[in-house]
């Protein structure tokens, strides 16, 4: 296929049009650079947030597993002690004591896990909050 060439002899682009076009191209380049910088910053913020969330999830899971281990061990200890009781009164006293201790333990574990979850949420959202505040100051 042959290329068609358009020759416009004697047509010269006025200086004002050329300057306008050059300014438009430069403005587009500048806007692209700003957009790219903002996108890079947003990517970094999200990466930091994800890293904090991942680290926090691992911490939370370790605490939850530790609580589970504690509760399972307490259940085994209770069962062993219950089987060793000689009278119904001893069994009732042991059961009452075990229930009280477990309630206290579970309450403390729930409080600890809730505190950890709040800390993780704050750490994970920290980079996003800081980035938004920085962006707001820039505009």
Q: What is the string of SSEs from the N terminus onward? A: HH
Structural class: mainly alpha
Helix content: over 70%
Let me know the number of strands: 0
- pLDDT average, as an integer? 84
Q: Rg to the nearest angstrom?
A: 34 Å
Overall outline: rod-shaped
Low-confidence runs: none
Q: Work out the strand percent.
A: under 5%
Query: Distance N terminus to C terminus?
Result: 52 Å
DSSP summary: helix tally: 2
**Major sheet, described briefly?**
none
Topology:
Elements: H1 15-83, H2 88-138
Helix pairs in contact: 1-2
Structure description:
The chain is mainly α. It has a domain at 45-138. Helices cover 86% and strands 0% of the residues. It has two helices and no strands. The chain has helices at 15-83, 88-138. Helix 1 runs antiparallel to helix 2. It is rod-shaped.
């Amino acid at each position: 296929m042959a290329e068609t060439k358009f020759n416009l002899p004697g047509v010269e682009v006025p200086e004002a049009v050329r300057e306008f076009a050059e300014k438009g191209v430069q403005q587009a380049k500048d806007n692209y650079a700003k957009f790219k910088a903002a996108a890079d910053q947003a990517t970094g913020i999200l990466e930091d947030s994800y890293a904090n969330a991942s680290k926090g999830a691992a911490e939370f899971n370790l605490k939850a597993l530790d609580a589970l281990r504690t509760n399972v061990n307490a259940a085994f200890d209770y069962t062993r002690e219950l089987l060793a009781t000689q009278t119904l009164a001893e069994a009732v006293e042991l059961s009452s004591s075990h229930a009280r201790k477990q309630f206290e333990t579970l309450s403390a574990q729930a409080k600890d896990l809730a505190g950890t979850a709040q800390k993780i949420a704050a750490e994970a959202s920290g980079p996003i909050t800081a980035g938004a505040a920085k962006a707001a100051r820039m505009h």
